[in-house]
Design brief:
alpha+beta, four-stranded antiparallel sheet, 9 helices, 10 strands, about 40% helix, globular
């Protein structure tokens, strides 16, 4: 199960996202509101809400903030936003495939903004389906398992019915599973005593293109960062991986 590089980017992305935690909270809060509005405020009865609550816990969102957004979503108000889930696809510098998941209350605002970000970074937004076939939706976790061998982690991963894992070194591993098993795998990893440093549902490329040119890698990173800074963007996925020789040089 080990040895695949397609999940390694989560380690670099996690470090960048730590710097933007307020923005991460805002995006997850929006998903909680939508889930609570659609299926009710009880996570036990509302599986979509339960998933968003678990994702919120994964980034250490305070319980009172989670509850406040559930209550907001369950409430009735004339100013309640009508959010739409959309996916934009395109190409970044060097032809890297990029998928952008958004949640917006105004698609006429969001589409031009996303297109402009692509173009400013040297990429271009494409037609629906132009790169989507290259990706699968997965549950992906970055865990800390100090003192545990790769075999120890693999045993837990297999018992949790996960699909893949990768040893990143320094006691860090990535674990992937079917996107519908996010909660089950998260609970299994926690029960085994592993620290979950990041956990999310993301689009994972079937194959990745390694980028070893620092300038091009920085351009791609700048594109991803600019997209993620947009309030309507929930997540950004690419089919590139960073060569070890430049991974630590990206700003």
């Amino acid at each position: 199960m080990a040895g695949h590089s397609k999940f390694a980017n989560i380690k670099h992305r996690k470090g960048a996202q730590d710097k933007k935690r307020a923005g991460v909270f805002s995006k997850i809060a929006r998903k909680i509101i939508v889930a609570a509005r659609a299926g009710g405020p009880d996570p036990v009865m509302n599986s979509a809400l339960r998933l968003e609550v678990e994702k919120a816990k994964s980034v250490n969102m305070p319980k009172d903030v989670i509850k406040r957004n559930i209550d907001k979503g369950a409430g009735i108000g004339a100013d309640a936003a009508d959010y739409h889930e959309l996916v934009y696809e395109g190409y970044g510098p060097g032809g890297v495939a990029v998928m952008v998941d958004v949640l917006t209350d105004n698609r006429n605002r969001t589409a031009p903004e996303v297109k402009k970000i692509f173009e400013k970074a040297g990429g271009n937004m494409g037609e629906p389906g132009c790169v989507g076939f290259m990706f699968q939706t997965k549950s992906v976790f970055l865990i800390k398992a100090e003192g545990k061998s790769e075999d120890d982690v693999m045993e837990v991963v297999m018992e949790a019915d996960a699909e893949d894992m990768e040893d990143l070194g320094d006691g860090q591993f990535t674990v992937s599973a079917d996107y519908q098993r996010f909660i089950d795998v998260k609970l299994a990893l926690e029960a085994a005593g592993f620290e979950i440093e990041a956990g999310e549902i993301q689009r994972v490329a079937d194959t990745t293109v390694e980028v070893d040119d620092l300038k091009k890698a920085q351009q791609i990173t700048n594109l991803v960062d600019a997209l993620e800074e947009n309030d309507d963007v929930q997540s950004v996925s690419t089919n590139h991986s960073l060569a070890e020789s430049i991974a630590d040089k990206i700003e």
